[in-house]
Amino acid sequence: MALLLGSLLPLFGQEPMEMGPIPTREMFPLYLLPMVYQPVDPTPLGRGRWRVALDHMQANTFEFSDNLKDQAPRDAQGRLAITREFVLAHASEYAAIPLMFFFDEEIARTSLRVRYGLTDQTDLWMELPYQSQSGGFLDGVIEDFHKLGFEQFGRDLVKKDQVTLMVMTYGHLDFYSDQSIRGKTQDPTVGLLHRVTGGPTWTLSAYLALKPPITTTYGIFRSGWDHSLGLTGRWQPNLHHVF
């Protein structure tokens, strides 16, 4: 232990490695199709330098219209289990309702990001996501968490670890799926970042990102040529604080 601590002491005096903003993403099912906001590191890598990153996100979604809580069918344990047959059989009862929905699924998304310094002030990057959609395994954990006092109505009423997606408008079934998707490549995103100004402690960069419509979501929906233009900045007032 003494030798290990001794070997690490020189590292404590060096400037800490700063990896940029933590990757985040909106994971609600309706936002998996288009481009959504994701943090962009404003600091250029430098000419000829590479950065490769891999991140994984697991998201559990459960939301449904109040109209379904008393009418939806139940399974053997008495939990809500929406089926296509039930929706079609009762569609006429919802003809006056503008929108009804039921989302219950778990999504695993793994993204590979590669970034390269074209010049000292300009970087090029690409992101390639790989995504699976299923009933998952987090329902039990989430139900236990809600028992601590953070209740969400219906969590203990819906069938565990199911995948069901339904959207209905004025009694017409627009979309229904209860099939898992075991791994599928999603649309890539290509971006360009350029540092426009800065100083000893701060940097301001502009970026442009483009997502071409190459793949489909749920085997049906396809986005357009999504694009994003923004500013991203970094301020480091001292060695150990970065904003």
From TrEMBL:
**What domain of life?**
Bacteria
Identify the InterPro entries for this entry: DUF3187 (IPR021523)
What is the protein name given in its UniProt record?
A: Transporter
Q: Which organism is it from?
A: Geothrix rubra
- Organism ancestry: Bacteria, Pseudomonadati, Acidobacteriota, Holophagae, Holophagales
